[in-house]
Amino acid sequence: MNSYTASLRGKIWKILLGVYRVSASEYLKYVGKKKSKFYDKIKNDGFRTLRTDEKFKQKVTDNMIVRLLNAFVWSKEKEKIVSDVNCNFTYVQGMNVIAAPFLYVLPEMEAFYAFSTFIQYYCPLYVHSSLIGAHAGAKLLDICLEIIDPELYNHLTKNQLTAEIYGFSSILSFCACTPPLQELLSLWDFLFAFGVHLNIIFVISQMIIIRDELLNEKNPYHKLRNFPNLNAKLIIAVTISLIPKIPKDIYAKIVKHTHDYKTVEELLK
User: Fold this and answer.
1) Which is the CATH superfamily of the domain at 132-268?
2) CA distances from 256 to 34, 191, 195 (A)
3) Does the pTM exceed 0.90?
4) Rounded Cα gap, residues 26 and 49, in angstroms
5) Which of 24, 140, 180, 268 has the greatest number of C-beta atoms within 10 Å?
């Protein structure tokens, strides 16, 4: 396991997320267990994690990703989600991408506890077996975009493009599917400080930034298939400018959709 000390960013993330307890013996107990039933899937996903980012690959190995996620599965084997939802944790696709930034800024053991805290307390419905939180997030993205920019929203819907099609990966991964990693880390600084629900507005902001290009495209899917590289300062600035445009009742749903089952159920019915 990696032995480097936590970066200043990693230490601040732990404070913001409320990670006050780590246990080497407990983590080693989970690591020492046999392969979980999700091991093969975890290994396949681990190999693909940020594979084009050389700095990441130099610091975080595939084995570290696999160990952390396999340990996570074992640690939650008999636990229930501590939220408004009563269901078991499991491994779902996309967890590998979410785990990656934690492993980049923290030693493996500390990354495990920070990742586990983030998943369990901040976005449990995103890792529900049906990913219902992320699907609700896509619904909210459509609702907000129609309010914020009706012209862009209509242009996309005329081309049969909804957030489920173009934005789901960004929503599910909290923008971690878009490079570069250094910009993502800055986005997550803001996200952990002011609320993980802002992820939805981050995605809208990325679209607003390329608004003119999208409107000029007969088939905007080509532009949305791969979002432009992240620019954290610009995305955050646009996000701050968009928040006042969202009605309070809709914003309340954005805040709750990561963890409140009733909100998600209402959005998806």
Assistant:
1) Ypt/Rab-GAP domain of gyp1p, domain 3 (1.10.472.80)
2) 36, 15, 10
3) yes
4) 26
5) 140
**Does the bond joining 180 to the residue before it have cis omega, within 30 degrees of 0?**
yes
Percent residues over pLDDT 70 in the chain:
94
Q: What is the distance of C-alpha 116 from the center of its chain? A: 13
Task: Determine the pLDDT at residue 5.
Answer: 65
Class level of CATH domain 8-122: mainly alpha
Q: What is the mean pLDDT of residues 178-196?
A: 97
75 token code pair:
């640690």
Angle at 263 between CA 187 and CA 20, to 5 degrees: 50
> Which amino acid, 177?
C
Tell me which long-range contacts 115-119 makes (C-beta under 8 A, separation of at least 24). Answer: 115/68, 115/72, 116/72, 116/75, 116/76, 117/17, 117/18, 117/19, 118/17, 118/196, 119/72, 119/89, 119/95
Asked if residue 102 lies in contact with residue 115, where contact means CB atoms within 8 angstroms, the answer is yes
* Core vs surface per residue 70-91: b (16+ CB within 10 A) or e: bbbbbbbeeeebebebeeebbb
Residue 86 structure tokens? 């009563």
